[in-house]
From TrEMBL:
Residues 22-323 form the NADP-dependent oxidoreductase domain. It comes from Coemansia spiralis. GO terms for cellular component: cytoplasm. GO terms for molecular function: oxidoreductase activity. This is NADP-dependent oxidoreductase domain-containing protein. Coiled coil: none annotated.
């Protein structure tokens, strides 16, 4: 389990709790989402994460169409007992083979929350990960055509079968979370949450998580790398980087959004730390029952992310950041239209 220098929180459901680190690792970028990746380097990063106590690992079956889970499975060898493993299902896709080829978007068949599909999806994930149990199994996107009660009931069967320990939802509405929780306790809700994506504060999701004692997992806590201050123009994005599709990274929007980084840079200079550490520390300070899962492919950045837990922001600094964020108009939606349409906004 995690080494003591990373703050841990109690995670789970009534009657079944474990301690997990508040700073985890999002693995999506380890298989090429933000440009070409080298497997040996990605495996080295996973080994370093385990050594550093960054042992809450998040993947998904759809990342690189199954390849990300296979990579994480290799990274788990010899350290499965130390890693809290989270994966996700819900995007039905065609897994590449010698007979299939084509663009990533062409391989996605749509969102599927049908019980029969869930049974197939979990077995496929277990096989790719080469494990006999998943610690946290999350519905990646809510299927608007299948009642959440049916989906969660099928997920609950996986708990009874011993294939899954805890259940979670991603990008769900507060109403969907309440309905799901009535079927089976939900351990976590995963949504984007950072200085330029604060939807969870205004749509009732964070309030509902507090009420039900559900852990909130903040993905992209650094705004897909934008809030680190390392990127200075849209031209910094490499060929094959999925962020080239995102509205906030488009030329014009990108430059306009740089002003959002300024407050983190100013405080980082005062505190003698990195901009990304201040941005992460700010997210961690917003909610006690919250985990961040920043992604990186470099060990030096992973070490910086882990060390962000030691950055303590004063109430004055937190208020300064909040006032600044509230004063800035973010340019562009957080997803392209096709991906934005998959977010659950049901009442």
């Amino acid at each position: 389990m995690p080494t003591p220098h990373i703050e841990q929180i109690e995670f789970g459901v009534p009657g079944d709790k474990v301690l997990v680190p508040r700073i985890g690792l999002g693995t999506m970028g380890l298989t090429g989402t933000y440009g070409a990746a080298v497997e040996s380097e990605s495996l080295e990063l996973l080994g370093h994460a385990a050594q550093a106590g960054c042992t809450f690992w998040d993947t998904a079956d759809v990342y690189a169409l199954g390849s990300n889970e296979r990579l994480v499975g290799k990274g788990l060898k010899g350290r499965r007992d130390r890693v809290f493993l989270c994966t996700k299902f819900g995007h039905e896709f065609v897994e590449p083979s010698q007979e299939t080829s084509g663009a990533f978007t062409d391989a996605i068949l749509g969102v599927n929350g049908k019980p029969e599909y869930i049974c197939k999806a979990v077995d496929a994930s277990l096989r790719r990960l080469d494990v006999d149990k998943i610690d946290l199994y999350i519905q990646h996107r809510v299927d608007p055509n299948v009642p959440i009660e049916e989906t969660v009931a099928a997920m609950a069967e996986l708990v009874k079968q011993g294939k899954v320990r805890y259940l979670g939802l991603s990008e769900c509405s507060a109403a969907t979370l309440r309905r799901a929780y009535k079927v089976h306790p939900i351990a976590a809700v995963q949504s984007e949450f950072n200085a330029w994506s604060l939807d969870a504060e205004t749509n009732g999701v964070l309030d509902t998580c507090r009420e039900l004692n559900v852990t909130f997992i903040a993905y992209s806590p650094l705004g897909r790398g934008f809030l680190t201050g390392e990127l200075r123009s849209a031209a910094d994005l490499r060929e094959g980087d999925s962020r080239r599709r995102h509205p906030r990274f488009q030329p014009g929007n990108f430059e306009a959004n740089l002003k959002l980084v300024r407050v983190f840079e100013d405080i980082a200079e005062r505190k003698k730390c990195t901009t990304s550490q201040v941005a992460l520390a700010w997210v961690l300070a917003q909610e006690k029952n919250l985990i961040v899962i920043p992604g990186t492919r470099k060990t030096k950045y992973l070490d910086q992310n882990v060390a962000a837990g030691d950055i303590k922001l004063s109430q004055e600094e937190l208020s300064e950041i909040r006032r600044y964020i509230d004063s800035v108009d973010v340019a562009g939606m957080r997803y392209p239209e096709d991906l934005l349409a998959r977010l659950d906004t049901s009442k």
